[in-house]
Design a protein that fits this description.
This protein has 254 residues and is α+β, with helices and mostly antiparallel strands. It contains 11 helices and 5 strands; from the N terminus they run αααββααβαββααααα. The protein folds into 2 domains: 9-178, Transcription factor LuxR-like, autoinducer-binding domain (Beta-Lactamase); 194-249, Winged helix-like DNA-binding domain superfamily/Winged helix DNA-binding domain (Arc Repressor Mutant, subunit A, Orthogonal Bundle), CATH 1.10.10. It has a 5-stranded antiparallel sheet with strand order 2-1-5-4-3, sandwiched between helices. The radius of gyration is 19 Å and the shape is globular.
Length: 254
């Protein structure tokens, strides 16, 4: 018999907030803000790969959500539509009918997966700098399946974390289903300059205006002025919305 997971009062509060916020997700920007906010509070991670599969197993969609800048090569290795690591992990787990699945990269590798279902991916995960993975999915339905892979959890993942993800699974699935298949955001008022794109990249790394100024060799006030011009170009009003808008338009990936 599986052990009963009893949530603390704080965990219950985080879970309820994540569920309530997920009910309103209907755009790529909202999905980004939700997964980088309430979901992170309950299940901190570095990268979230979300996949939808057709009833026959064909990949319909893959979204890679992350709050820090990923090198193009790392992004392709993780979220490639042909043979990306997230896709192969999802299919491996579905084929083995083992969901949820987790990998603890601590002292005892694979301690969270006694059957070793994820051990075959050790070398690739190490090469990309990830030592922990948590995977869950809906299983096959009449409309196909959804699978979610969390990379780089700061804590050693356990059955408790798998339970959190299982509670959120229906809401992640429905939110992913509600996202428009094609990006529907209009283009920005103008293209971002090289310096503005650089600033957005550092913004995504969580740098303050002062820190960005030191990195770029300019004043914090100049950084602030750049940010104001970025907001106007993107049609947003703050840092979080600017990041979400860039994600929606795939500006950073370009």
């Amino acid at each position: 018999m599986e052990a009963v997971v009893i949530l603390s009062r704080l965990e219950q509060e985080y879970l309820l907030r994540a569920i309530e916020s997920g009910l309103r997700v209907a755009s790529a920007r909202q999905f980004f803000l939700w997964t980088q906010g309430q979901l992170q509070a309950l299940l901190p991670h570095r990268v979230l790969a979300c996949m939808r599969f057709a009833p026959g197993g064909a990949l319909l969609r893959i979204e890679c959500v992350h709050g820090t800048v990923l090198a193009p090569s790392a992004l392709a290795a993780l979220a490639g539509r042909r043979d990306g690591l997230a896709l192969r992990i999802a299919r491996h787990c579905m084929l083995g009918a083992r969901l949820p699945a987790l990998l603890d990269g601590g002292e005892q590798r694979g301690a969270g997966a006694p059957d070793g279902i994820l051990r075959t991916f050790h070398a690739e995960l190490d090469a990309l700098g990830f030592d922990s993975v948590l995977v869950h999915g809906t299983g096959q339905t009449l409309e196909g399946a959804s699978v979610f892979v969390l990379f780089g959890l700061p804590m050693r993942p356990s059955a408790r974390h798998a339970h959190f993800l299982e509670c959120l699974l229906p809401h992640l699935h429905l939110a992913l289903m509600r996202l428009p298949q094609e990006r529907q955001g209009t283009a920005p008022a103008r293209a971002l300059s090289a310096r503005e794109t650089e600033i957005v990249g550092w913004l995504r790394e969580g740098k303050s205006n002062g820190e960005m100024g030191q990195i770029l060799g300019i004043s914090a006030l100049t950084v602030k002025n750049h940010l104001q011009r970025i907001y106007r170009a993107l049609g947003v009003s703050n840092r979080a919305h600017a990041l979400a808008r860039c994600m929606e338009l795939r500006l950073l990936e370009a």
